């Protein structure tokens, strides 16, 4: 091979490489979702994928991002299997070529995070609440308030209403553990007494024993930490056993209202709770569209993943506007930090803090006729 | 003290539920030897059918239960005829049948999710009361669980002892080959016990619908409890299965009196472990 | 590419899990459903050691193997006491306890959060932190684990395991120490499973309790059953199918949010269909044929007496002397006062009506039952406290009325497995001194064939025992008994149900054995036979010796004739 031809080859190569770097738009922007589509709690997968899909459809109906459509690719983690999640994550990156992934469940997020970090894939979690997911990777973001943040808000709310002795019930899960620890710290920090903390296995046949022990501890108020739908079941049991104390939750969905039935009345939820209100037209529009598509009102999980897709779409749009090889995880993250504030379906805006957790308005809601009624905004910390 | 009374009551009510599940499973497993893992989702299907009849078709609860129980029996029979029977004819070893049952389990569980949706199913049209003994509370549904366990238990016991079919079932449970030799139609009896056992599980399922609500994954815990109760009770003994069902519930409940509840499974299984090691052939030993 | 590599890594890991599980259930016949516990133990050992103590890969794995093998030994204990369904429930219980412990021991295991941030395996300074880089390691480890499992399966120890699976009592009666075997196979199976655990921990860099639930054990069980029990290639195939099938189904496009549930339904249906087509699993049990071919031509067609080791000592010398043996079961005295002597070169016939206590007497003499009174002296050594396999090793072996052959083993394997003092029964020798094991095996095969020839089964040497005629089965029982090398042989109804030709043949064998200086005791009902072969008759009824003496004298006894011979 002559020197010339080597030179030509190099030139040609660099032209191709530059062409790659210029990165024409992909045919479609694929966004990955790793959800609980089967297994012990497939309902999470249904609402999360539903919310995300709705957002994708809405954005596409308006022409996508400068004419390029979005596509949601869902992988099943079988309600918490780390291995299924890792397989899904690899498939999303390798086969589907996604640059942003929406994981769910803390353990799944923890298992897939190293891959996202290594492959520079933006990860936006709207489900898991474990503090372990915070601050470990520059590519990891949370769009849901952390349990530890909400716990403080609830402790203050209960104390404001005159409770001196608090009892907690939770699932034996990363969520339950994190919440119990954070609440105990906040509660005892105010010099008040924690009288019980009962936990049950996620697949427990019943929770009667735990509720009986809770009742025997004679609390002034009950912190009810199980996730959907056991939150509703716990409320039903507490009330059936004649306990009239105020009950506080940080997670409550329509499922819980269904399970608890009339017993849900008066339960308070302190969270970045999604509620469609007249003051917030986007929330109303979203709720109506969701109901039209799936037949149910959306819960905050649906809202989080719906919002997550909008955030990612916005990042792609911003990144593209700056040109170059814009469609990479690195560029998406860069675009996020350039302006960490986004419109929120919860009302007004959400802002990512330095640790990657989005700050949303946290409010106290009271359940009336199974529907949450806004009481007041409160501080998360 | 109040806690102790409450825990005892809880043990009684959950024991009734476990006993019902165990009776159904014992009938099937004890007679045919099929480790009917899909008993769990069949039970779930029954409860979902009752739900659909009440919530969608607007039937009164009692009518829905009757229809639901019948439908579940049919479901159980179908699972025998289409899944297990061919393996039985082929003389497959029990563990192959178990894995086939596992396949059926996966199919049914996911079909429930596809057909009925993955959300929790409850009925709110059936009202029930709360009662109290001293400071301890219980609901009418829980009383219903105990009554159901009693009625079903007595009914089955009577059937097994007094009727021609019942005696044949007992003979088959004792010795399948001998039963065939003396001219008992084991296929027909298998159909019968699959129908009966599935029907019993649907009774338990209907009450759980009122008590806790339904989800597609409810079958796993149910078949696990039923299987454990039947083995602990002594294979082939209905009485043993019932006693073991109550025993499990009482340990699960009373065992937590002074122990943190997150160790519930451990306590139950440590007791079970010790029990089986001390008495390796179950509560009711067979000659 | 990475995705494909990931899927293949999973096939390797599940291949390790399924083959190691197959050793337990397919070879040992031990249905201990706690395999995910071993898997978890390996994974957590790696996670804890790597994150808390900063220990690196091969050492985390080795430590995990040791810890997990110890847990395997613990699980083995219930397996000694209970079998079948009970063991299934107990081990499922253990599995549930494991999850509780992992969930609740937060300082050590991280609780439900698990342990994130486990450092990757580093080879030659390169971190294997992606599927493509990790795959070669996973493949090599899987190959190693399979080789270890295969070596075990093909070794004399594997043969003993399969014999134990076929019939525990018979395995004991040919001198196998079941306790030791179960401990060894549990420790090995658990240790191998923990390798998969260490690998998955370093590979995914995260462990949590939910990855090791009962469902995981059930999945591994399904792989073993699907592939075929007792076939290690089958386990690999089962693992590959059950890993690849759901991944493959992901490429089947199903619209809507029910897609994954539809795929699971298809998965379940495929599982059922495969089993319907191949009810014994995809592959039949592996036949580990002993190398008979090389030896066969050198064995004479109808072996002479020399094939049997002549017992040392003078003819007529008392070898076994049982005095005042008693055994009661919950108040019922099955044997009250049994005194019996067995002498070299003599055949004693134990006779008596049904329920007289004849078989109980054999059970007492052979250690299967512990007497509640009396003594058994063998060459002056007390046997009453010994376990059955120790009694056999001492020199006293027995057969069973219901034969208890190892039906899935071939004729020559039935005999081989009964030969005493095989180096191949010791796993250390199997792995560390393969030459010794191979030489011993060749000698043993020759010996087994000589014994087969002696009883006239040489032509059937490679036939599976299940295919033998009844007469051949009875001959095999004797061959197996001979193979133990015992000089005292107790035969429980060796002649019942046979045609006269075969009876004559077996009687000839018995006489040959007596001539070779063995002490023999038989339970028999056929008086003609007894008269023909026995030197002495011991008549027992209601658990005690009524009378004894030479056959001719005894049969003239009028009272006896009325009570027994009618």
Automatic annotation (TrEMBL), chain A:
**Keyword Transcription regulation: yes or no?**
no
GO biological-process terms attached to the record: amino acid transport
Keyword Membrane attributed: no
Enumerate the UniProt keywords alphabetically: Amino-acid transport, Signal, Transport
Which ranges carry the Leucine-binding protein domain?
29-370
Give the signal peptide as a residue range, or say none if absent: 1-23
Instruction: Name the Pfam families for this protein.
Output: Peripla_BP_6 (PF13458)
Similarity-based family = Belongs to the leucine-binding protein family.
What this protein is called in its record is ABC transporter substrate-binding protein
From TrEMBL, chain B:
Main location as per UniProt: membrane
Keywords from UniProt, A to Z, are:
Amino-acid transport, Cell membrane, Membrane, Transmembrane, Transmembrane helix, Transport
Q: Where is this chain's protein located in or outside the cell?
A: Cell membrane
In this record, what's one Pfam family?
A: BPD_transp_2
Transmembrane ranges, per UniProt, are 12-30, 37-55, 61-83, 95-116, 136-160, 189-210, 216-235, 242-260, 266-284
Recorded GO MF terms:
transmembrane transporter activity
- Topology of the protein relative to the lipid bilayer: Multi-pass membrane protein
Q: Which InterPro entries does this one have?
A: ABC_transp_permease, BCAA_transport_permease
Q: What does the entry list under GO cellular component?
A: plasma membrane
Q: Does the keyword Cell membrane apply?
A: yes
Q: Which family does it belong to?
A: Belongs to the binding-protein-dependent transport system permease family. LivHM subfamily.
Q: What is this protein called?
A: Branched-chain amino acid ABC transporter permease
Q: Which organism is it from?
A: Azospirillum doebereinerae
UniProtKB/TrEMBL annotation, chain C:
Q: Would I find Secreted among this entry's keywords?
A: no
Name the record gives this protein? Branched-chain amino acid ABC transporter ATP-binding protein/permease
Q: Which residues cross the membrane?
A: 7-35, 55-77, 84-103, 132-152, 183-206, 218-245
Instruction: Give the bilayer topology.
Output: Multi-pass membrane protein
Q: What InterPro entries does the record point to? A: AAA+_ATPase (IPR003593), ABC_transp_permease (IPR001851), ABC_transporter-like_ATP-bd (IPR003439), LivM-like (IPR043428), P-loop_NTPase (IPR027417)
Tell me the PROSITE patterns matching this sequence. ABC_TRANSPORTER_2
Query: In which organism is this protein found?
Result: Azospirillum doebereinerae
**What are the recorded GO MF terms, alphabetically?**
ATP binding; ATP hydrolysis activity; branched-chain amino acid transmembrane transporter activity
A GO cellular component annotated for this chain's UniProt record is: plasma membrane
* Main localization, broad class: membrane
Task: Enumerate the subcellular locations listed in this protein's record, separating them with semicolons.
Answer: Cell membrane
Tell me the keywords, alphabetical order: ATP-binding, Cell membrane, Membrane, Nucleotide-binding, Transmembrane, Transmembrane helix
Q: Which PANTHER family match?
A: HIGH-AFFINITY BRANCHED-CHAIN AMINO ACID TRANSPORT SYSTEM PERMEASE, HIGH-AFFINITY BRANCHED-CHAIN AMINO ACID TRANSPORT SYSTEM PERMEASE PROTEIN LIVM
Output the Pfam families linked to this UniProt entry: ABC_tran, BPD_transp_2
The UniProt record lists the ABC transporter domain at: 320-565
